[in-house]
């Protein structure tokens, strides 16, 4: 096999008679290195078959056909043999890769014509001993025609004219194996590279989202305009009475002064509020809701504040107008008394920002105040059915809550998650509603503060004649036509003052005669010095004299002395049978205030009494500052302790009805005792908690900031979940939440033990 170019390790020889003779003769045979010796086997396999079989087992071979008689020259197989074969051949009969044309592979192989067409020539050998048939090519240059390369097949092992060559790349020395540490490091680098790519893609995606959101928020509908209702600086939505237009303020949509009821004018002046159920009661076109007309009311000194009778309006603050993800709803009603609410504009100053920050919808309805809202005249009762009068302002609140149920979804709110937030007079109005069958379906939780949750114990028929006859009108027409200012100026000053006589009565329709259990989760709270604003006249006069302190304490306790003669319960202050003082022959008479003597049942709070002295001495051990002592004592007696006592009784009753502890209507209680500096001094005044909740608390120190955040977080957690904390909230009969910079739970308020029998001192609205 001299001069044969060999590619790879193996080249098989083709069978021919000449090749065997030449090797046996050894005349022109060159020395070839002997292959490695293998163990002898009883089966003798021809060398060409053994080599081809070896290559077939190891894989990676290529085959080429040779002409008979050219075994000495072999087949010149180069790197071209390992390239892909040409797509087609001119002569399909010479294509070794063509499909079989018969089911018998042997016949098909024999029927395939040879690709070689060399003429056969006979010649005598030089020795003349024998004649051998040799194959001589027609050309002096040895060549193979149409030689093709392909993958080896099984029949190639038995074909002498097929040469098999192994791919030389398979016999290259293997690279040195990498160490384990190097492999781990390589995998770490590759994973790190992929992680960097992922992080980079994530950062790019976040940046794109931020850019898109920023453009959408700053464009206000000019760059993106998916919502045609938003046309900066105006926004429009719909209600059951027609479209309304509001404004964009602090990132929220603000609608001020939307009518929620028919204007109480003319024949509707002293009637319960009525919803707009007729198109004739609605507006034409789009209602511009950008201003709220205040109602007639009284200020803190009892003076008349001019307003409008057409004031049954509601303000809405919402961060969205969509229907996809409705937000919790808060309905806020406040007021220092049922005669006036001069603090409402201030408390709603930051409602728009609060709605955006806390993702809630805030609503605040106006209700009628004073004599226009609480006038129990018999002539009015006789002209309507059922025959009742009074509590017109409470009917306004009930109508406003109904309007909220019908329309809050158009403002992005959830009508199934409404929380009522009542402060002072607002809490007093809401208390009968959340306990009545018609009111508790309109709200789903309630947070009331600054007012003892009490039912009005005087029916409208037993209203004070001084109030009923104040207008000096004997007909309904006179009552409906008299000027509004005349109506508001008619009551005596003791009614118009914030600490005056109570306006709320039991009418049997809006406010039931008999109290019932609350129907929604309830949080009842107060501040530690809730009565501080009512005692401001004593702050400058209060000296170090014990007698001055005693006089101031008695004056503060007598703020509600007009309530002393109101009916009291024989059992629980909230439930049970009513016993009227002075009940003679089954007829209820208007009770008189107690006499200023020791023989009175209420002598413990009469000036100069021994019990009043004992109270001052006991509080002196708790408070050193005279002003702080006075405000704490009066607040505990009139607001804080009665509030906690009522909450405890309600919670205990509900817990008794549900001994497993899974009561559906839990009652919680809190006391805010963070002292802030205000015109009432460094005290926890009656506005500190509601101002913190509504975001208008003016913080001056870091403790103020922490306190405002604490109570606000507690409130909005209650709004979202109906509970003050995730796990094991403490009901009112087991503890009280004490709010300062932090939230602590105490079993009870120790000072309240002194006022356990003084429910007659509590403030009523």
TrEMBL record:
Residues 1-22 have a biased composition (Low complexity). InterPro entries: CarbesteraseB (IPR002018), Type-B_Carboxylest/Lipase (IPR050309). Residues 235-726 form the Carboxylesterase type B domain. The keyword Transmembrane helix applies. Pfam families: COesterase. The keyword Transmembrane applies. Keywords: Glycoprotein, Membrane, Transmembrane, Transmembrane helix. This is Neurotactin-like 2. It comes from Homarus americanus.
């Amino acid at each position: 096999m001299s001069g044969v170019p060999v590619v790879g390790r193996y080249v098989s020889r083709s069978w021919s008679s000449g090749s065997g003779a030449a090797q046996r003769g050894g005349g022109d045979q060159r020395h070839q290195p002997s292959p490695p010796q293998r163990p002898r086997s009883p089966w003798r396999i021809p060398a060409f078959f053994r080599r081809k079989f070896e290559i077939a087992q190891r894989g990676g071979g290529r085959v080429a056909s040779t002409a008979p008689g050219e075994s000495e020259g072999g087949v010149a197989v180069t790197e071209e043999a390992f390239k892909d074969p040409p797509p087609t051949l001119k002569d399909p009969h010479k294509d070794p890769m063509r499909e079989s044309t018969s089911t018998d592979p042997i016949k098909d192989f024999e029927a395939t014509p040879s690709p070689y067409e060399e003429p056969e020539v006979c010649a005598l050998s030089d020795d003349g001993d024998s004649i051998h048939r040799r194959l001589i090519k027609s050309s002096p240059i040895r060549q193979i025609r149409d030689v093709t390369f392909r993958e080896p097949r099984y029949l190639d092992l038995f074909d002498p004219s097929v040469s098999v060559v192994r791919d030389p790349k398979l016999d290259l020395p293997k690279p040195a194996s990498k160490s384990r540490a190097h492999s781990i490091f390589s995998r770490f680098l590759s994973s790190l590279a992929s992680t960097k790519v992922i992080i980079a893609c994530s950062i790019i995606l976040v940046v794109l989202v931020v850019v898109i959101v920023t453009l959408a928020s700053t464009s206000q509908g000019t760059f993106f305009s998916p919502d045609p209702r938003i046309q900066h600086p105006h926004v429009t939505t719909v209600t059951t009475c027609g479209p309304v237009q509001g404004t964009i303020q602090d990132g929220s949509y603000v609608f001020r002064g939307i009518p929620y009821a028919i204007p109480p004018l003319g024949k509707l002046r002293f009637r319960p509020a009525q919803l707009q159920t007729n198109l004739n009661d609605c507006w034409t076109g789009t209602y511009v809701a950008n201003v709220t007309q205040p109602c007639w009311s009284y200020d803190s000194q009892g003076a008349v504040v001019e307003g409008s009778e057409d004031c049954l309006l509601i303000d809405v603050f919402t961060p969205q107008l969509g229907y996809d993800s409705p937000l919790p709803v808060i309905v806020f009603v406040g007021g220092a008394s049922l005669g006036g609410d001069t603090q409402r504009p201030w408390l709603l100053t930051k409602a728009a920002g609060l709605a955006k920050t806390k993702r809630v919808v805030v609503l605040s309805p106006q209700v009628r105040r004073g004599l226009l809202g609480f006038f129990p005249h018999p002539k009015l009762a006789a002209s309507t059915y059922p025959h009742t009068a009074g509590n017109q302002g409470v009917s306004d609140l009930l109508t406003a809550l109904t309007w909220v149920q019908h329309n809050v979804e158009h403002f992005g709110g959830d009508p199934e998650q409404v929380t009522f937030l009542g402060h002072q007079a607002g809490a007093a109005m809401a208390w009968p509603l959340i306990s009545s069958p018609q009111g508790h379906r309109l709200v789903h939780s309630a947070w009331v503060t600054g007012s003892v949750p009490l039912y009005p114990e005087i029916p409208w028929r037993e209203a004070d004649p001084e109030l009923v006859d104040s207008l000096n009108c004997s007909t309904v027409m006179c009552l409906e036509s008299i000027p509004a200012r005349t109506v508001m100026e008619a009551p005596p000053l003791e009614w118009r003052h914030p600490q005056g006589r109570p306006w709320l009565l039991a009418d049997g329709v809006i406010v039931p005669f008999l109290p019932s259990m609350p129907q929604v989760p309830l949080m009842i709270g107060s501040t530690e010095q809730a009565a501080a604003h009512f005692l401001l006249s004593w702050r400058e006069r209060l000296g170090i004299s014990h007698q001055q302190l005693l006089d101031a304490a008695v004056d503060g306790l007598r703020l509600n002395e007009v309530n002393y003669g109101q009916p009291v319960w024989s059992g629980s202050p909230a439930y049970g049978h009513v016993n009227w003082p002075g009940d003679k022959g089954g007829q209820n008479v208007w009770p008189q205030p107690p006499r200023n003597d020791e023989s009175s049942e209420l002598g413990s709070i009469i000036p100069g009494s021994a019990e009043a002295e004992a109270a001052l001495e006991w509080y002196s051990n708790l408070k050193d500052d005279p002003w702080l002592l006075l405000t704490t004592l009066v607040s505990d007696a009139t607001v804080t302790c009665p509030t906690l006592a009522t909450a405890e009784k309600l919670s205990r009753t509900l817990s008794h009805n549900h001994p497993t502890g899974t009561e559906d209507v839990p009652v919680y209680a809190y006391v805010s005792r963070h002292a802030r500096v205000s015109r009432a001094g460094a005290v926890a005044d009656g506005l500190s908690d509601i101002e913190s909740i509504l975001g208008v608390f003016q913080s001056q120190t870091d403790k103020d900031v922490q306190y405002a955040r604490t109570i606000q977080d507690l409130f909005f957690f209650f709004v979202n979940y109906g509970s003050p904390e995730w796990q094991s909230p403490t009901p009112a009969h087991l503890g009280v939440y004490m709010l300062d910079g932090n939230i602590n739970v105490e079993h009870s308020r120790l000072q309240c033990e002194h006022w356990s029998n003084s429910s007659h001192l509590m403030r009523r609205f």
